[in-house]
Amino acid sequence: xxxxxxxxxxxxxxxxxxxxxxxxxxxxxxxxxxxxxxxxxxxxxxxxxxxxxxxxxxxxxxxxxxxxxxxxxxxxxxxxxxxxxxxxxxxxxxxxxxxxxxxxxxxxxxxxxxxxxxxxxxxxxxxxxxxxxxxxxxxxxxxxxxxxxxxxxxxxxxxxxxxxxxxxxxxxxxxxxxxxxxxxxxxxxxxxxxxxxxxxxxxxxxxxxxxxxxxxxxxxxxxxxxxxxxxxxxxxxxxxxxxxxxxxxxxxxxxxxxxxxxxxxxxxxxxxxxxxxxxxxxxxxxxxxxxxxxxxxxxxxxxxxxxxxxx
Length: 311
Ligand code: BDR
Ligand code: CA
Fold this sequence. Notes:
It is a single chain. Strand 2 (27-34), helix 2 (41-54) and strand 3 (61-63) form a beta-alpha-beta unit. It is globular and about 55 Å long. The chain is an alpha/beta fold and 311 residues long. The chain has 13 helices and eleven strands. The site of beta-D-ribofuranose has 14 residues, from helix 1, helix 7 and helix 12. Keywords: Glycosidase, Hydrolase. This is Nucleoside hydrolase. It comes from Paenibacillus zeirhizosphaerae.
């Protein structure tokens, strides 16, 4: 089994990623770590706990960053995409459990030391918790087996801005720090996640199944589906961004990757949050320290795999 930590800003596609991960026998989910992003930190933590309760899993949740690494909150929350509550307005009652006392960054470090070169972190929100973990443990890149990030748009336009993807845009300084820190890193960006669309027919089939979990997933996802229709009228579904990052942990051959040096625009750059390929000479990481950028995806095979496990 592959030991993983999932770093989330739960969020509807984060919730789908959590469901997919806990139902995947190849993965051992050691814990969820939470960050601000789609919604506020306390809401992300609460939603993660709600999800685990629905999924009947006692996996611990560690709360992390409530704002970006080196600036004040910058990107507005995206309640028009994920709902007022972050889970498609499906929140009904408070979870019975609460988050663990330890900070998310410390939990990541502790597990990385406990399982050297065995742990995969899948980060599907802003990269703040990973940046804080790097500050506290500079040898983290050597300790992890791999870091899989849902974020960026290297070869395609952005979503939250014409040039920026939401997770990177929410904390560009953290993103630059983490992307150039020397991790063995797979970047699952909009380059591939805008191709993995969940069709409405699949969500309707969940509802027909009738279980409480299926109904919750369907109600929540319907909200996200509508948001995608508003965002891109006529689009064939809603994007499975965060689930694809989990899919890549299970089966790396869902995607084709290319080694690249990637830079992030930071500070007050007009294209802040942009992720783009640079030459080895321009890279601050030193020669050889490329990251693996996903450039192609077998969308149909991934979708069938995801659908076979989500409920
Ligand atoms: C990413 O941004 C968030 O809104 C989603 O949960 C996903 O992680 C897509 O750009
Ligand atoms: Ca997310």
